[in-house]
Design brief:
With 503 residues, this protein is mainly alpha-helical. Helices cover 63% and strands 3% of the residues. The strands form two sheets. A two-stranded antiparallel sheet has the order 1-2. The protein has a two-stranded antiparallel sheet with strand order 3-4. α3 packs antiparallel against α10, α8 packs parallel to α21 and α12 runs antiparallel to α14. The longest helix is centred in the N-terminal third of the chain and has 37 residues. The radius of gyration is 32 Å and the shape is elongated.
Length: 503
């Protein structure tokens, strides 16, 4: 290649999304809009022949020769829309005099953009639903697998691998909601004229306001929209772009968070993204398994999160009825936002389809930290035992579930706390200064003070007693929230296939 091509389309994005924002699709859509306008104008009484409509219908797609003719025409006219009007007229000579009748350039450029926004959001919604479905299966599979929780990236109380996954899914469900709202809120610019007053169409219909309103409604229907914006300037408000790109930027934040979590887990060797048999992690360090898919997600998600700033700034400087300094910016920022979101979702789907969990590593890390976490349970157990009559205490080795404190009586909690504090500090010193395993439980087993509950220590240290309702939360969340949200996407889910990436 001897000229620059955006890697968004040449390397990463799906064929469907790349085609949607292609020149072929853009100019094909312009011709469909001109056809819809002509059909509606004819229905409302303007002298447009059947032959003109037929010729327009027969020439909605451009071939290589027409693209060449448009490029040559644009050099002369310095106006892309009028270059296309001219070339379309050559293909449909019976319609040459009525193509673009009463319209301004934004009739095709803006209405086409709204069509692309709507179709692109639909493509993303299907992909997002598939991603949520894949992650939901993973969450269900690992709903009860205890894992060390982290707050501040410091060891915290246990959770489960499935419960952690639901945190990612919940944010993606909000993105599904936001993308749906953005798509369903989209209206059509319709036929509004040069400054939005519909003056040219009022003139065409000899001052008949009803026919102008009917024309706007009919072209909107022919173009597949439920409604047209009631008022516009020459363009539709660029605040619409803000709404859409902010939604995509929010999706980028969800994706970045999820991919970052997986990158951190990969460092801990607990969970890894898929790694192909012949994949090379490093050109120098042959042993490396770099999380390159998640790194790609983070890289592109950052780009996606920045793009809404373009829309915000463009919207804020649209002088009066319009200014053209939005055009070049939007030609870049709108397609890039959707191509980037498309790549992010495809990559996350690929990751979710091949996530690898290492339970033994997870278990080892739990056991390194669990003794410290179990100290409160141990305190409660010894206090409870010491507060009971001797006869009862000798018969019972009951253990309270994690987080549930048994009723306290005369047992001395402060004394128990002091014993645990001393032993915990000794164990922590061994871990931090000597690099040895956590031996707190062994120290407790050697301390006569805790002898009454030695036989209960294994139960007190069972990781499954530290995860609360995490498994139940996973299954409840999937049933009550995820399943209903995915209901509209059943066909897409049935047809979904695995994603292969260029790694």
């Amino acid at each position: 290649m001897d000229s620059y091509q955006t890697p968004l389309s040449s390397r990463y994005a799906s064929k469907e999304m790349s085609h949607l924002f292609s020149s072929e699709m853009r100019f094909h859509t312009w011709r469909k809009l001109w056809l819809n306008l002509a059909i509606a104008e004819k229905e409302l009484g303007l002298p447009i022949s059947d032959l003109a409509i037929q010729q327009m219908k027969a020439n909605l797609h451009l071939d290589a020769e027409q693209f060449k003719a448009v490029a040559e025409e644009e050099k002369k006219r310095r106006h892309d829309v009028m270059a296309h009007v001219h070339v379309f007229g050559l293909q449909a000579p019976a319609a040459a005099g009525i193509i673009h009748l009463g319209a301004t350039s934004c009739f095709v450029t803006d209405n086409a953009d709204l069509i692309f926004l709507r179709e692109a959001l639909t493509l993303l919604l299907d992909k997002l639903a598939i991603l949520i479905s894949r992650l939901s299966a993973f969450a269900a599979q690992h709903a009860s697998l205890p894992t060390l929780g982290f707050t501040h990236f410091q060891p915290a109380q246990l959770t489960t691998v499935g419960k952690r996954t639901t945190l990612w899914i919940q944010e993606l469900l909000w993105d599904l909601r936001n993308l749906t709202r953005a798509r369903d809120d989209l209206g059509f610019r319709g036929v509004k004229g040069t400054t939005g007053t519909q003056a040219s169409f009022l003139s065409l219909f000899n001052g008949d306001h009803a026919k102008v309103l009917a024309l706007d409604k009919r072209v909107t229907e022919l173009s597949g929209f439920a409604y047209a914006y009631p008022v516009t300037s020459q363009t539709y408000s660029r605040k619409i772009d803000v709404d859409v790109l902010n939604t995509l930027g929010s999706l980028g934040a969800s994706a970045h968070k999820m991919a970052t979590d997986i990158r951190l887990l990969a460092n801990l060797k607990e969970v890894e993204e898929p790694f192909e048999k012949g994949q090379i992690g490093s050109s120098a360090m042959a042993y490396k398994r770099n999380p390159m898919r998640c790194e790609r997600v983070c890289s592109l998600a950052r780009h996606l999160m920045v793009l809404p700033q373009n829309a915000l700034m463009t919207s804020s400087v649209q002088w009066f009825e319009r200014t053209l300094d939005d055009s070049a910016n939007r030609r870049v920022s709108l397609p890039e936002a959707f191509l980037t979101a498309d790549i992010v979702l495809s990559t996350l789907q690929n990751i979710s389809e091949g996530l690898v969990v290492y339970p033994k590593v997870i278990e080892r890390r739990i056991l390194e930290e669990l003794p410290f976490m179990a100290t409160e349970n141990i305190i409660m157990a010894i206090v409870t035992h010491n507060s009971k009559p001797a006869a009862v205490a000798s018969e019972e080795n009951s253990v309270s579930p994690a987080g549930e404190e048994p009723p306290q009586a005369a047992g001395d909690r402060q004394e128990a706390h002091e014993h645990i504090r001393v032993l915990s500090h000794q164990a922590a010193k061994v871990v931090k200064e000597e690099g040895k395993p956590n031996d707190l439980i062994e120290r407790i087993k050697q301390d006569k003070y805790f002898e009454p509950i030695w036989s209960s220590l294994d139960s007190l240290m069972d990781p499954s007693t530290f995860i609360g309702r995490a498994p139940e939360q996973v299954h409840e969340f999937l049933k009550e929230w995820v399943e209903p949200a995915l209901k509209p996407y059943e066909n897409a889910l049935k047809q979904a296939k695995g994603v292969e990436l260029n790694v």
